[in-house]
């Protein structure tokens, strides 16, 4: 009689444990003690303060008299060009942490690539394929949701005017850097720190996923969408972290994060009904009520499930091909 392998969330435990061990191999390889990890954290905090100070100083130069509103988070109603610049500015702020993370890793005698693919080479093709596929999944899902459950009067089409098209390459690249920075910080550096305390996949999932969830609670979506925003961030925290733990590398979670955030180039929220949620890039603009619904929650759950299963199926298929 064949032994029945234990599983969690439908994933074999041996795969979860093996993937977690591979992911933590980066920190294990550093062979750094408590004080070196402490020094790395101090370096990152100093870099964070320097970056935050630099961006705060840049706000008056870019936005002039609207500075106080920007710093307080009360985004005023600009023309579309100003909104686009503001969106790029906010993504650039997070992207600026990439060199800070790289400097922090130097303290540990590690490279950023070792966080992405411990003991292996970074597979850029996985990041690109996953990002494009995730973007297509998200766009298709939201299009179907609009068609099935949203009255025609609650959305309109407002493509980016030709005079602003030169911003598209900038936002595409900046979102890629922003999403990569978040992944390298949370499921890279921070996860490796947690791994010095515990090798348990479920403890890492709770701590790292919970930290990702908590860091996003200050976003305006939480106050506006309520429990639906909590659900979205909880699903994202689980999806990004579990995919990283199973695969033992960050290409998939980075790709998912990039592709998901690229959706701001297609979907947006009307600036009059909700200026805090307006990015300025979206072609399809929603202008209806922002009340959370069960249908929206169901769509989000199914979307996260589909993307997660697609990533894991792709990973296991590639692993089987390599083994054969």
- The total count of strands amounts to 5
Radius of gyration: 21 Å
Poorly predicted tracts of residues: none
Major sheet characteristics? 3 strands, mixed
Strand arrangement in the largest pleated sheet: 3-5-4
What percent strand? Answer: under 5%
**Euclidean distance between termini CA atoms:** 26 Å
Shape: globular
Q: Provide the succession of SSEs.
A: EEHHHHHHHEHHHHHEEH
| Structure classification | mainly alpha
Helical residues, percent:
55-70%
What is the mean pLDDT?
88
Oligomeric state of the chains?
Answer: single chain
Q: Please tally the helical runs, counting DSSP H or I stretches of 4 or more residues.
A: 13
Give an account of the 3D structure.
This protein is mostly helical. It contains 13 helices and five strands.
List keywords for this structure.
mainly alpha, 13 helices, single chain, two-stranded antiparallel ribbon, 324 residues
How would the blueprint of this fold be written?
Elements: E1 7-8, E2 11-12, H1 13-30, H2 34-63, H3 67-72, H4 80-95, H5 97-107, H6 112-116, H7 124-149, E3 155-157, H8 168-195, H9 201-215, H10 220-225, H11 227-247, H12 251-261, E4 267-269, E5 284-286, H13 294-323
Parallel strand pairs: 4-5
Antiparallel strand pairs: 1-2, 3-5
Quick rundown:
With 324 residues, the protein is mainly alpha-helical.
